[in-house]
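Write out this protein's structure.
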Amino acid sequence: MAVKAYLRFQKYGSERFDGDYFLTRHLPLIRRHYARHGLLAASGILRQTEQEHAVSLLLFRDEDALVSALADTGVLLGDLRNMTDALLDIRLVYDDERPDAPPVRADPPAPQPEAAAAAVA
């Protein structure tokens, strides 16, 4: 079953984000690099909201493809330095009927910074 990875580039303390680089260099690099691992599609949009710089959606053939891709992130993580210092939030969504699969959502919920701060305190 297909697996989606939602990537959110969050603004928490981050000012540097090159949207042009994200769309024209980083996303094509993701497509090229992860194609051999079973990436079916990769898209991204600039959000420029109060909380986010951008979001991206990666669609993998199955969980094995995702695990293979996650084991080979060095080039992509290195490239992030060219684009941003933003916090990267990754959420996985499984497109199957497994009882332990998280619910499929059109847009992942935004984290609540107040709740996170309270949990740390």
